[in-house]
Design a protein that fits this description.
By secondary structure, this protein is α+β, with helices and mostly antiparallel strands. Helix content is 26%, strand content 32%. The strands form 2 sheets. A 7-stranded mixed β-sheet has the order 4-5-6-3-7-8-9, with helices on one face. A two-stranded parallel sheet has the order 1-2. Helix 1 links the parallel strand 1 and strand 2. The termini are far apart.
Length: 185
């Protein structure tokens, strides 16, 4: 209909639906945005500027949270723990990390491998999402990334490390802080 759109994540639930939406957006070229929070945060803008024209070699990240502990389950909506309703930890939280990996590497994933477990809270009625997941991505441009995501950690910590041509950064996404070096400084 020619209307600019903003949608919450995920932009689609299935690959087929996502491809159909992508094709419509490409055909009509109307402004469209998905609610991925990290690519728009102000503290990361200088990092994006440094990366322009430089090759990223690798990205490593982790997202640790306490959401499987009884206290957290009491304060959080049951929807988070039902993969069909929330997408689980991947669809609700790790999707932001995947988007940031795509944004930083300027590429889409060519190959993905992943593993998960549930030691603290086994799957059953009320819990259908994994509590710990590790995945690796090989991007179209050769950049490799790995991510460890858990809800079985006693506190919150969201960190990403990336390195490449003349730079290395540690992005503390939970504290909105960047440290690292560019061209040796």
């Amino acid at each position: 209909k020619g209307i600019p759109i903003f949608v919450e994540k995920p932009p689609s639930v299935t690959l087929e639906e996502g491809e159909k939406i992508r094709d419509l957006l490409q055909a009509h070229r109307h402004p469209h945005f998905v609610g991925f929070v990290f690519r728009w945060t102000r503290f990361l803008q200088p990092v994006f500027e440094v990366l322009k024209g430089r090759q990223t070699y690798g990205i490593q990240s982790h997202y640790f949270a306490d959401m499987m502990f009884p206290e957290a389950r009491a304060r959080c909506s049951h929807i988070y723990y039902d993969k069909a309703l929330s997408g689980g930890m991947i669809g609700d939280q790790a999707l932001h990390i995947i988007d940031l990996i795509r944004w930083l590497s300027q590429a889409d994933a060519r190959r993905v491998t992943g593993f998960g477990n549930n030691f603290l809270c086994p799957k059953g009625p009320g819990i259908t999402t994994e509590e710990t997941v590790a995945f690796q991505l090989q991007m179209d441009n050769g950049v490799v990334a790995n991510h460890l995501h858990t809800w079985a950690f006693p506190r919150w910590e969201i960190v990403m490390n990336l390195f490449g041509q003349g730079f290395n950064f540690r992005l503390n996404l939970g504290e909105s802080k960047v440290t690292g070096q560019v061209d040796g400084k």
